[in-house]
Amino acid sequence: MAHAEGLPRLEPAMRFLIEIAAPIAVGSASRGTPLSAVSMASGTAVSHPTFKPVFDAVFEGGGTDYIRNDPDGKHMRLDAHAVMRDKKLGSLVYVHYTGVIGITPELGLVLSGSPEAKSTEFGDAFIHLTFETGDEKLKELETGVFVASGRFVVEEGKPTTVEYRVSKVVV
């Protein structure tokens, strides 16, 4: 099927792998839905072979994902912040993403640390990312519109990892 004129499409951009810690329940006395904070202990972001600018970064000093569950318990709302350092350039890049994750029984096992937890499939976690940097070579990251689909990766003896496949929205 031909691409309809003017409709956006997705161009593969990068892959994020983020090791996360257990959620910390902050609570909320006034909002009605409790706030949790999840530390992003470490992570990487590597550009797709066809994406420009080339980007190969590690998380600098971790990051935090602030999460609120919807009152009906069916979705989580993400608000994450982190700083990354490009390995080759040494440049810092701030990444901010927001998103929605469908809370499935499989995800419940992952988030509770259950020994029965298994990796989840793509299709229930979606985010929108923005970037900010002081490096002209990476400035193009600031002007793009980026979205991603994510999943939780569970491997015995390793921290839980979130994998995001990031795409740039283009026409």
Ordered list of secondary-structure elements with their pairings:
Elements: E1 9-20, E2 24-27, E3 35-47, E4 56-69, E5 75-86, E6 92-102, H1 105-112, E7 125-133, H2 140-143, E8 146-153, E9 161-170
Antiparallel strand pairs: 1-3, 1-9, 2-3, 3-4, 4-5, 5-6, 6-7, 7-8, 8-9
Quick structural overview:
The chain is mainly β. The protein is built from two helices and nine strands. The mean pLDDT is 94.
Structure overview:
This protein is 7% helix and 54% strand. Strands 1-3-4-5-6-7-8-9 form an 8-stranded antiparallel β-barrel. The model has no long low-confidence stretch (mean pLDDT 94). It is mostly beta strands and 171 residues long. The chain has helices spanning 105-112, 140-143, and strands at 9-20, 24-27, 35-47, 56-69, 75-86, 92-102, 125-133, 146-153, 161-170.
Share of helix, binned: under 10%
Radius of gyration: 17 Å
Q: How would you spell out the order of helices and strands?
A: EEEEEEHEHEE
Beta-strand percentage? over 45%
Overall pLDDT, averaged?
Answer: 94
Strand arrangement across the biggest beta sheet: 1-3-4-5-6-7-8-9
Number of strands: 9
